[in-house]
Description:
2 domains
Amino acid sequence: MTRTHAEWKAAAAALDFDGRPVIGGARRAAASGRTIEKTNPATGEVLSQIHDCGPEEVDAAVAAARSAYESGAWSRAGAGFRRERLLELARLIEARADEFALYDSLDMGKPVREASTIDAPGSAALYRFYGEAIEKTEDLIPVTPPGSTALVTREALGVVAVIVAWNYPLEIATWKLAPALAAGNAVVVKPPVEASHSVLLLAELALEAGIPAGIVNVVPGRGSVVGRALALHEDVDMLAFTGSTEVAKQLQQYAGQSNMKRLALEAGGKSSNLIFADCDDLQLAAEKAAFGSFTNQGEVCSANSRIFVERPVYEEFLRLYTEAARAYAPGDPLDPASGIGSLVSEAHADSVWATIEHARRDGRIVAGGTRPEINGSRAFIEPTIVTDVPADHEVHTREIFGPVAVVTPFDTEEEAIAHANGTPYGLAASLWTGSLARAHRVSSQLVAGTVSVNTVDALGFTTPFGGFKQSGFGRDLSVHALENYTDFKTTWMQWG
């Protein structure tokens, strides 16, 4: 059912907010008694008090996870049992999809229209995907000498810590949790302090779905405290993370300083979009480019925010792209007519705005470049298109994480590839061409975990997602994500 603006506002007013952690299957208060005031960035309204957890709650959650894992109630319950529980969790998420959507929209400013039609249903579908995948993975019996048999099995790692980013709180948590749970692990999640409510609700629904208490624990709080404690914890076997490259590097250090826990890190990005003159549909390329750079307020790790256009079509593409950007005008996140919502906070909007002002001084703003006040909040920024800035300018080099894109002409294929690869990141890239030969040739030379040809930022449940270089390592999505949360065990039997 499609809700109106008034209906979404009424539903939001009826929500209950509970910022307490979920540990061992129960809500409990943080021992410190401290809380963090959580406001709606789109209005400034106080939503709730998130409990400011610390090492005591981390220790309790890890202990609960370890006990639940070693009990075998989940890890040794069998693939069929885990499958049914994950399918039930998917059903429960679907039944409360609008509630999940409202939590994420109110917490971090994204349009509720997208959260309700993409994020929540997609998360439910992914639990279903991994639930079904459990019984379709196979162990191995490799060739061994006569008189022996070797069994190679995939074994769960044990206690998995998950640190979630705030731009897609429910979805990113699901990308980690679904395969980790499918493999038989117990998990401790640190949700983003900016957007904790949907992940806390997810933990409650896991219990309702029949997943044993202690298998899914959620400890909200500051990354510098809760995230650090998890990364340094001697009884955490593996840590999965989505966030900035700077934090990913810290987590590598913490893993080395503690028990050498394994890591799967999806870090920063600065993705390129190459538009060649032989593109078959420049209008479509412009519309997709606007989606790739401005959807979710540009708060997307793989956002195609660096657009390189072959000179013969540069001016025409820029005109079409500027027109397409108008569809992403900011507005109240609860209004289905809004193109985008607010940024996650006024402080983050200040940082994005400073970059726009820098670009205004050093180049040319051809669209956007304004900061409207909506609902009394200054966390809104109009999609902004920048041109004529030098190659070393921060709009080319820094992950801005806002609705800002830079468009630059190029003359040769080699130049375009050099531009695309000229960052420390390697998460994603796109290219537009009508030549199959060029599509193969260029995509093979782009250093990126995903290369989208004649579309942008393509992903699906069956294809792995992750990066090269300083965009991290390990893969989300697809059956390959199970490799993050399992390892091979060889059992060799000798009788001759």
